[in-house]
What we know:
Oligomer: single chain
Strand content: 35-45%
Strand order of the largest sheet: 1-2-3-4
Radius of gyration: 15 Å
Number of domains: 2
Amino acid sequence: MVTKNLGLVKAIHTGSTAPTNTMMLWYNTTTNKHYAYSSVSLSWKLLANADADFGAIQDVDIDAEYTLAAGRQNFIYGDMTVEGTFHNEGMIVVQDGDLIIDGDVDGDGDIEFI
């Protein structure tokens, strides 16, 4: 099997207006949130995160404990700081930032940096 490096692929559009390519993710600089295009409603929808009640988990305070369920993503633009406890069974995606761990991160989930 031969692998060929084709370079970087732009998969996330950053700006205040949605991209015309609906196959991309969109980081809306007005709301500071990520969106994906829904082929059902034919509109841009806020990406579902660990829990719809609190949205993307950017910082886990020292007394906090969160669980990211299997099949879910926590998509962060910039740094994510964990001082408390974060149980990762899903996927943490950090764009243009770092994962700063001063607490506990456990689980069978994945962490990706883009």
